[in-house]
Amino acid sequence: MIPAREEIEQAKKEVEKYVKQRIKEFKNLKEKNLTTFDFRPFVDIQPYQADILSEASFCILTANSSAVMGIKIQKEVGIEGFKKYPFEKLFEVIRKKGHRFAAQRAERIIKLRDKEDFLIEISREDDGKKAREKLVKEIYGYGYKEASHFLRNIGFDDVAIIDRHISRFLFEKGLVKPRKTITKKVYLECEEALEKISADLGLTQAELDLYIFYIKTGKVLK
Domain for residue 39, yes or no? Predict the structure, then answer.
């Protein structure tokens, strides 16, 4: 029996309906380039719409930050804001929310606008791992984690998001050796461990990530 089974099965009992809801929201982005996110009761914020460019921007915002902060900024900027806000306005929104790297993130989001068609093309692919390689090569500010995060959030089921919550969970369970930094080699090692858990529990990588995030934070976000 895998060390994480009992915790994940308990998490499934507690929040399965929210995980299914989130997966449906992600699939809408892949299929329609539009979704409505509702993070209640985990975050006290009203539902809002996002498209693929908005979601790619969200994944830039959450790097070295938090999902909650990214959600709040994404809602305030809105779909049109990510497409049209000048640097100064975008910077000010991000800064007011308390982001430590407001100028850098605003710059990266503005660069991202030129890649909107590419991002939509990526959303139509079937293989998440191949799509990830293209994103890392093409998108400024995207490493494996950011690319995987974006793909999961637009409906891909076959890539893992190795952030501090997931890596710590794997370390604590003895599924991978503790590392100070997440290199590409370590990332893929962690992803392989998660694939084994997914297969054992009959979950997709996307579902498993949401359950582990819930175990570590008490929230089902994205």
Answer: yes
**Which residue segment(s) compose the domain that 105 sits in?**
5-217
195 within domain boundaries = yes
Provide the Cα torsion 89, 95, 97, 98; round to 10°. 180
Catalytic residue among 72, 75, 115, 145: 145
Is the residue at 222 inside a domain?
no
Q: How far apart are CA 200 and CA 215, in angstroms?
A: 18
Which residue out of 51, 158, 163, 209 is catalytically annotated?
163
User: CATH number for the domain including 75?
Assistant: 1.10.340.30
Q: Which residue has the higher pLDDT, 20 or 2?
A: 20
Helix (H, G, I), strand (E, B) or coil at 37: strand
Look up the pTM and report it.
0.95
Q: What tens digit of pLDDT does each residue of 156-208 get?
A: 999 999 988 888 889 888 888 888 888 899 999 999 999 999 999 999 999 99
163 is catalytic: yes
Instruction: Report pLDDT for 1.
Output: 56
Domain presence at residue 31: yes
145: annotated active-site residue: yes
Element (H or E) spanning 36, and its range? strand 35-37
Q: Provide the number of structural domains found in the chain.
A: 1
